Amino acid sequence: MTDTRRRVKVYTLNEDRQWDDRGTGHVSSGYVERLKGMSLLVRAESDGSLLLESKINPNTAYQKQQDTLIVWSEAENYDLALSFQEKAGCDEIWEKICQVQGKDPSVDITQDLVDESEEERFDDMSSPGLELPSCELSRLEEIAELVASSLPSPLRREKLALALENEGYIKKLLEIFHVCEDLENIEGLHHLYEIIKGIFLLNRTALFEVMFSEECIMDVIGCLEYDPSLSQSRKHREFLTKTAKFKEVIPISDPELKQKIHQTYRVQYIQDMVLPTPSVFEENMLSTLHSFIFFNKVEIVGMLQEDEKFLTDLFAQLTDEATDEEKRQELVNFLKEFCAFSQTLQPQNRDAFFKTLSNMGILPALEVILGMDDAQVRSAATDIFSYLVEYNPSMVREFVMQEAQQNDDDILLINLIIEHMICDTDPELGGAVQLMGLLRTLVDPENMLATANKTEKTEFLGFFYKHCMHVLTAPLLANTTEEKPSKDDFQTAQLLALILELLTFCVEHHTYHIKNYIINKDILRRVLVLMSSMHAFLALCALRFKRKIIGLKDEFYNRYIMKSFLFEPVVKAFLSNGSRYNLMNSAIIEMFEFIRVEDIKSLTAHVIENYWKALEDVDYVQTFKGLKLRYEQQRERQDNPKLDSMRSILRNHRYRRDARTLEDEEEMWFNTDEDDMEDGEAVVPPSDKSKNDEDIMDPISKFMERKKFKESEEKEVLLKTNLSGRQSPSFKLSFSSGTKANLTSQSSASNLPGSPGSPGSPGSPGSPGSVSKSTSQMAAITTKGGLVGLVDYPDDDDEDDEESIPLSQKAKLESS
């Protein structure tokens, strides 16, 4: 079977309370005669043998966990689990189980009541709680077994948790822990580890409150140091008391807040460092621990936010020049942690949090910090800035635009960010990558607001291109003054790749702002210098930048590319790459293929007229030959606009037969007298009768004749043309025509009607909208044997024109 939705692993719980893998197969449900009911069947995917045949008992408690796990107890001490490869398969089987038991599939457990097998495990089910063994050193093994045996069943976990709460059992266990440590009773300490770990998996907030209290938490951590699977105990308590230091960068006067901070740190440490990584069956059992930490953080943020004196002192010391560097670093680290805690807040509370920080002046403070020399402080300030940008980029944009009215460009916050990105000393540019992401968020029009009075996109992008873009492109312009990059080391290449990535994003999203900047500063020429870099990833970034520009199909960009001959570096890189089949080869071919498929006429003509001799031998793809064919078709249409006009008319009448045309045809048919009809001949207007087959086929014959001799014509053209008249290219190419001459002829031709790349004037012979009178009036093709053609009539506009022109003038038009 190949259906992965029903692919499952079968697990059984062994005597040691560990899950054993019984094999992988495909699960199905169906009626089994032998079991007299609907059953779950799992057949092995290897040989089709039966791995599981289990009747869906109406009273059995089935539990769905983590969307892909179904667990149930088949009999006493025999628990089963199906682990699904896909959630969809788990949902299907769960619906079958719920259908048999008459339950809503939205539940995670099908039975709230205890089943018979569970009743037999407890002596007195009517008692309010479970009777625990007396808390003595000699009975630790018995207690550990009881805790372990209670974990698989939700009901048993509930009873055990109630018993532990009611009898104050945890504090008694921690007293025994001190005795075991004093006696160096390793076996007892190992049992205590299992007991405390099991209590964590009970997932009860009331138990956590006892365990994480000031008097108990260090002893709980001590119990978890003695993991039986480790040869030596861990020293978690020593780390927490001696190594980890609590620093009050600003004195906290509230003792409750201080205690909450200590508790949260220690519980987070237990979760991350002390407790073993939970198995797939234990993850859900620690959800309350996650919630405990989460709500503690919410409380801490709320209490600090309400303490106005605390925040005022914090920002005052941050921006005070008299604050020493070590103190400032601690303040920044605290603020960073404070912002990280805020991520746990609900959206409305987070709004209030960042609004409070904004009112306190967090952005001016960050500007001061980012201007400092300490790299660690700047790094922490960058993290804080990232929280602000991700939360509310509009707030940051508004600040930097207001700031620009008062300060020079050099000290603007956004320019400081760009400078830190450029000056990142990390060889892998980790900080620069983070800052580039923040800049992209700030210049992304998708998250900019538009109101009735102003448009944030217009204002901010105008500001950015005026005050900041020159700072961003400075490394690119400085490194591309020659034909090759002046610096081509790995770190510089990485930085330039990041800048190009952002510029490519701007090309896609900023329309005229980036267009003006690229054309005025000749940015594309500078970028294409990087095509000769020794780093392939940088050359590909440059190519991707150009590909994004071409993808816009904007004639302003196209004219700029043609005028500056900016395909030359691409063709040079393509030829230098040779016959290697790599990403560079594929990317360049894809760019030319895009030009061909999208039929960008101006670029097609430019490429063929200037670079065809260099590309004509490339035959392992048909891209360049296809471009040549496109070019020739353009030339045909230019040289024979009559043929082009006929093609468009035939195409229009073949595919566009609107209701108005049909009505005209019907009216003409009914208005024709029978006497006008002669045997074997269709009556047509006199002007159309004068047309004969030779007139109709004349343009087609000319076209076929031209196609027949195209090779000889091409050779003649090649003999007459010279190499580029602009300047000798840096690589040897035989061009099919002079570059300047062609550019001139193209620009002049662009003013002619019907020229490629120009819309053409209405009514001109070559324009798409024109209709040639010599062809549009053809109503039918007749023979002596009778009517053989369909009658095609032009639209109303053409008929009106026809009526207004005398027949004698029509004949002149047709013969012209």
Automatic annotation (TrEMBL):
Residues 767-776 have a biased composition (Low complexity). One of its GO terms (cellular component) is protein phosphatase 4 complex. Residues 672-681, 793-804 have a biased composition (Acidic residues). Residues 672-698, 726-816 are annotated as: Disordered. Residues 142-633 form the Serine/threonine-protein phosphatase 4 regulatory subunit 3-like central domain. GO terms for molecular function: protein phosphatase activator activity. This is SMEK homolog 1.
